[in-house]
Specification:
Length: 358
């Protein structure tokens, strides 16, 4: 019987509300599976920074290396400089642990109406694979003489052949397990160095997967397709910045940002991977008990999938589907169910003896 050690980092704001519900869902599914999960909580994030001057302690990364996976909420507080959360926490873990894949599925759950009303469940089911370690977010740059008339600022994007090859191979292998199509979302018509290089290398890798259809689409056109023709997508491979923006759009066409789950994945398993909802700490609704926990719960399912517990992962996704079909709705989807009530409804379905459909 496998035992997985999971580091739990709720973070700030609604992270503290949705992550405990996600942990309860994971405990429920483990209780009826042949593996166990042991959770260890860490109080890190912007709140921790207020008291300790750091988002995570000096030995934080060493501590996390002992775990099989990291289950994370979100970091950031309105009173803390908002350039710090990414730099001091999220990017630090993603980069130190070589989590170069940001896996972000987008699908319309049964029982939910997409704002794109004519679309059905079968039309909205794709994954955004966002390159997670380099590109536009390397934070290589400088602000010079900010107050002076000759003040200037530079941010340099960095793309490496090995980084692009790795994300491309992950995407084509993923497509082989899905509907066998990869769309490279790019902007090489204007970013004529970095993204021409990106396209060239993705195209080289595409030739090694003749069974997978390959297309290249510019991001402006892709954004329109998210709304007008989402059924054209199966696996989207894209850069760090483009993937960040498009996956929030993905959350929106699912019905709410609160629904989106994700994994920051180190496919080689040299380091623990980290699983988190796609949204942030939502200070506007924090403390009210109304945050939608489904993105966090789905992230738990993606975590179990990564750990090889496919059946248990499927049970969580079915639990989400059945709970939504029963009519329970969180506040962001126009309903009135609290964070805890949504969690309980999903746990009830997971624990019910009924054989779950896929
Ligand atoms: P946000 O994702 O926290 O919120 C955007 C909007 O979506 C808000 O109106 C919020 O109420 C709503 N929303 C988000 N999640 C929801 C949920 N589960 N249920 C119901 N409604 C939900 O983005 P925002 O406002 O731009 O950022 C807030 C803070 O979060 C900032 O400090 C930011 O830096 C941080 N952040 C952290 C991330 C991370 O830790 N990975 C990612 C994105 C933002
Ligand atoms: Mg984002």
């Amino acid at each position: 019987m496998g035992n997985y050690k999971i580091a739990v980092i709720p973070g700030d704001g609604i992270g503290k509300e949705i992550v405990p519900v996600g942990v309860k869902v994971l405990e429920a599914v483990a209780s009826i599976s042949n593996f166990s999960l042991s959770f260890t909580d860490f109080p890190w994030g912007a709140g921790y920074y207020k008291n300790h001057g750091l988002f995570l302690p000096k030995d934080g990364l060493e501590v996390l290396k002992q775990f099989d996976a990291i289950y994370f909420g979100a970091v950031g507080l309105p009173e803390i400089d908002d350039t710090l959360p990414a730099m001091s926490y999220t990017f630090k873990i993603r980069n130190s642990f070589q989590q170069y894949v940001n896996y972000r599925p987008v699908r319309l759950f049964p029982g939910l109406k997409s704002p794109i009303a004519a679309k059905e469940q079968k039309d909205i089911d794709f994954v955004v694979v966002r390159e997670n370690n380099e590109g536009e977010f390397v934070q290589a740059g400088k602000i010079l003489y900010p107050g002076a008339p000759n003040g200037l600022a530079i941010d340099t994007s960095i793309f490496t052949r090995s980084g692009i090859e790795k994300i491309a191979h992950f995407s084509f292998k993923l497509a082989q397990k899905r509907r066998k199509k990869v769309t490279n979302v790019t902007k090489s018509n204007t970013l004529v160095h970095s993204l021409v290089f990106w396209d060239m290398i993705i195209g080289e890798v595409a030739q090694q997967y003749p069974d997978v259809a390959y297309e290249k689409v510019y991001v402006d056109n892709a954004a329109a397709s998210f709304v007008l023709r989402p059924e054209r997508f199966d696996v989207i491979v894209t850069t760090n910045l483009i993937g960040d923006i498009l996956s929030d759009l993905g959350g929106a066409i699912m019905g709410s940002l609160g629904l989106g789950g994700s994994g920051n994945i180190n496919p080689e398993n040299e380091f623990p991977s980290m699983f988190e909802p796609i949204h942030g700490s939502a200070p506007d609704i924090a403390g009210k008990g109304i945050a939608n926990p489904i993105g966090a719960i789905w992230s738990g399912a993606i975590m179990l999938d990564h750990l090889g517990e496919l059946q248990a992962s499927g049970k969580i996704v079915s639990g989400i589907e059945e709970a939504l079909l029963s009519g329970i709705k969180p506040v962001d989807l126009g309903g009135s169910a609290s964070t805890d009530q949504i969690g309980e409804a999903i746990i009830k379905r997971i624990l019910s003896d009924k054989k779950v459909a896929n």
